[in-house]
Design brief:
It is globular and about 65 Å long. The protein is built from ten helices and 20 strands. An eight-stranded mixed sheet has the order 6-7-5-15-16-17-14-18. Strands 9-2-1-13-20-19 form a six-stranded mixed sheet, with helices on one face. α1 packs parallel to α6. The protein is of the alpha+beta class. A hairpin with a 4-residue loop joins β11 and β12.
Amino acid sequence: MTHIAVIGAGIIGAATADHLARSGARVTLVDARQPGHGASGTSLAWLNSHAKDPRAYHDLSVAGLEEWRRLAAGMGDPSWYAPTGGIAWASTDEEAADLTARVARLRDRDYPATELTASRLADLEPALRLPPGAHAAFFAAEGFLFGGPATQALVARAALHGAEVVTGVPAIGIDADGGTVTGVRLADGRRITADAYAFSAGAATPGLLAGLGVAVALLPGEAPGSPAPCLVAHVATDTALIRRVVQTPRLSMRPLQRPGLYLEAGDLNATVDVHTGAEVVGQHVAELRARAAEVLPGLGDGDGRICVRPLPEDGLPIVGWAPGLSNAYLTVTHSGMTLGALLGRLTTAELLGERQAVLEAYRPGRFG
């Protein structure tokens, strides 16, 4: 029986471990934290192919949406999967023209996209109070995940099919003999050995492999001005105010599992890094709450945190065998939620010897 160690229990690692275990492989899943407690559990978790280019990447993302539908149906349509569509709106004439063009481009790709009348928008999201003159669109194929519970459910199913789950213990070193990985050393003294090693540790992946001379082409999360860190806020509400991902000109938001809102904004992300202190985080959370209060009533207190997203240098997924290592496989992408279920299946096929042509454009070797 092939033994594969999966390093990283975010959504991609969880999906990979799940597919591997159900395919009959022996699986050891390793993570420094509990499943879903990294970027997978803190991100917007938007399932979409809203602005994905080139066309092949758009098509891969659409396949990712379909994969989630199949996976969720096979798990009884769990509450952590929310295929509720997505809404975007524009306030200025220039933004409205861009949104109209985006809708037309997506419809040319047979991606469901519709411009909304005010009454139709009110039917979809009754609590939203758009500013006068706002121009809105609805993208029916989209949705979101509650990332932590989704990841945990996949890990649990992998464990039911025999996967060994080793979490809460950091990997402190990767051993190799020439071009072959021979083991993963853990902080508690254990050493995991396997036939192949699947690295899906998100932003932590470059650090894990740096000692072997393998460069993973992610934008460094700790570099000054890096776009990888982002600020996310959770704001309490008395009731569930919205049902789906809503993109405004100054804010992205979606529901939480409990009554509340997830909030994020690109311009604020650009002002933070991994060293941003609690005072600045608090100020930004207050700003995000104020922006949300412009369009939604009844917001309570909020809190925030900085997370680091895995951002490949060219924006596209990195998937395939690591150059120079015969048995180390990389699966790292910014679109981990949209692509997680699909990449879990495709990665499993490649780890078990079946090369997937759809992944050829995303190999690690493209960076030289």
